[in-house]
Every structure is written in structure tokens, then in C-alpha cells.
Prior knowledge:
homodimer, mainly alpha, 64% helix, globular
Amino acid sequence: MTQTEIAIKMVLDRWNGSILNLNKHLNELSDEQLQKEIAPGKNRGIYLLGHLIAVHDDMLILLGMGDKLFPELNEPFIKQADKVATQIPSPAAIRKMWAKQNDVLQEKFAKVTVAEWFSKHTAVSDEDFSKEPHRNKLNIIITRTSHLQYHSGQIVLLKK
Amino acid sequence: MTQTEIAIKMVLDRWNGSILNLNKHLNELSDEQLQKEIAPGKNRGIYLLGHLIAVHDDMLILLGMGDKLFPELNEPFIKQADKVATQIPSPAAIRKMWAKQNDVLQEKFAKVTVAEWFSKHTAVSDEDFSKEPHRNKLNIIITRTSHLQYHSGQIVLLKK
């Protein structure tokens, strides 16, 4: 394994480990618990999970991997704050989307080559990328893993 | 810049960005707010910040960068749960340790070479490392950034 391959493995391992860690917590939370606020006056668990799906869906676009799976989640879970949308999917439906999305992302990530991981993501111009080569696809995984961990630390608070 | 250098830059940028992000929140929190629980019955902000310092201090050992700066924090902030220790440092003292530690870590990280980042950390044997080359020093930064983000998502809940 080259150093570059090792670096990619470490980043993907951390992504996958973060997904598994949150799944473990989600499996221990009831649908009723997911509907609760993580702290008084703060976001509900269900909102945070919908938010994660919507943000991860956008990764498909940034990584040039095709269309979003659930574009309808952008409005209620990214554009709008929690409790603004009058109707959002049920906890059961959100859990199903989350599981489906994780399968799709895992399958797509496994096929990416070293050269592709270090190629530019779709939101940066050729010109900017030539000056800032770290704005590549692998960096999308790094930053979204941070985001996932941030909200995982909040969702876990719903546990008794 | 080689792909390996780019990978190291991305990992360190994410670490530094995570520290800056938490600092921004800490600056907006009063000492009184830091003493509060992040959610009813959960850890206090001050405990989480002490915990982060203690965990980051252990990185110095794992990275072979010398002694811990604040070894006295291991007992109350890692071994013990919140509210077990009868006496812990004041919020002002903890903030000062946090700032000092960030300076020290940043200075030390900046001097590490590519080869060193991909060399084994101190808690893995030569034999295991030969089979699992991802158990290197750079991976310590990756996993601790995850941990930092996880607790940052909790500390931010103390904001009004």
C-alpha cells in the first residue's frame, strides 16, 4: 500500500466508523425518543437525522456521483430550521432513507480510484483547483465526517 | 505538492478548523454557562472541555512528542465521569490550559515530516504496524478530530 492509499483508507475508515457509531445509537433510540429535542429548545433528533441525510445527499452532487436520492429533504432539513416545516417524513421513513443512503454511498465510495479521490469536487473551478489542490473529493469525505460527528454527539443525548 | 502532502494538509486543516470552531463557541460562552449541563442530567461544559484537554494531552504520548502538559487531568476528566471528582480546576484555569495546549500542539504538528506522519504511533507494536500501516501518527489526528467534533456539537448547546 502506498502512503496515498493508506491516507484514503484512513479517511474512508473514519467515515464508515462514524456511520456505524451513529447507527449503534439510532438502534438504541425509539421513534418516540427521536421525536424529542436533544436539549430544551434545541433541534429534535428526527430533524438532525433528516439534516444528515440531506447533507450526505449533496455529497453525491459534489462528488459527481449522480443525482440526489431524496431531493425533497433539502427544503425541510437544510433550508429550514427545525419545527418550521409543517410536515416531515415519519421516523420510520427517515430511518429507511438513512439506511438506503448509507448502502448507496458505501457502494459508490468503494469504486473510486486514487486519482479520482484527489481530483476536484464539482463546486470548485478548474482555476481555483489548480491553486488549491486540497479542494478535492477526498476532502469532502473529511469535512462531512466532521459534520456527522458533530451531530452524532447531539443525537446521542437522546439516550437515557 | 504531492498527493501525500495534500492528504496531510487536509487532515491538519480539519484539526485546526475544528479547534478554531470550538474556540469561537467558547468565546461566546460565559464561565457560568460552561458550568451548566449540556442537557438535563448530562455532562457539564467544563467537564467536556477538561476531557478534551486530557485526551489531547494523551496525543503527545501517542505521537511521541514528549510528556503530557497536564497529567493531573487524566483522573478527573478521563477516568472519572462528570461530577465524581470533588474538586476540578475553575473555568478560567481550564480555558488557560486549553489555549496553552493548542499553541503547543500546533507548534509541534507543524514540524512533523511526511515520513513521520506515516510512521507508527507509540501504542502499536512493530509487528502489528507492519500488517496495519494505517495505524500511524496521522490517523491519531483523524480520530481525535472526530472526537473533538463530537463533543463540540455538545458544548455548543450551552449557547442560548
